[in-house]
Please model this.
Amino acid sequence: MTTSKPADTATRLERALLSLDGLSVGDAFGERFFLPPGVVQSVIRERTVPRAPWGYTDDTEMALGILQVLEEHGRIDQDALAQVFAARYRLNPYRGYGGTAQEILREIHEGAPWRRVSSQVFDGTGSKGNGGAMRVAPLGAWFADDLGRVVVEARASAEVTHFNPDGQAGAIAIAVAAAWACQWQEQRSAPDQLFEVVLDHTPPGATRRGLERARALPLESSPVSAAKELGSGSRVISEDTVPFAVWCAARHLGQYEEALWSTVSGLGDRDTTCAIVGGIVALSAGRDSIPAAWLEARERLQRKA
Model:
């Protein structure tokens, strides 16, 4: 099916590119902190900015795939997205893809239908990993003026690799958070409104329950204690990644740099949590909030597969 692009495509693209910069810098920043336990706490405590260059991971690679499909189709065409994901994976499989993601993308590239491959992993339950959430913030920015559409398109983007409903719930939560963040500079809503809007649109399940716990956790708490309470991606699944990321974003809606230092101090799957938070907070804090030196350090993005 062919879908004509909306008249405001340029505006949508501008928002999505801002989110992509925030996501990719966060991803590349967080990836630099996989250091020995004693070292990493010291480096974070002293706020030692990693040396350039900062290579990005599969988080950014797949976000680039989502944006490519949105530019070409104006919506998530799942067949096109599956092929773009697989093509980008085959061009550079050394981006830190998880084992299940590699299996799915390899089979799609070899011609297997994405729906069959995605639905068969984990004994037919599908993946509930955090991969749907890590890449989706630019999609939320693209459809920011219609939260109902955000939910539909975010679910579609996740389903290609994450057939489990909770993996899709994580993508929905983060896309909605990103869409809400687009309006924050104008409205300056209380940070807890982020949780209300996200919970209004996140379907029932473990990720939603984690978000409810995150909402109850004071934003004055330390990120380390929040990570202990909510998880910070150590299990690499939606429920132990998304709640912490939304909490960190709410804590620093106007402060991109502070948001990333707080997020990385929770350790866990730190490239992914920083990618998620970066993709949201770049939208609420604005482009000037991303340090120019960090953008310069980040590997140059390859927009097209």
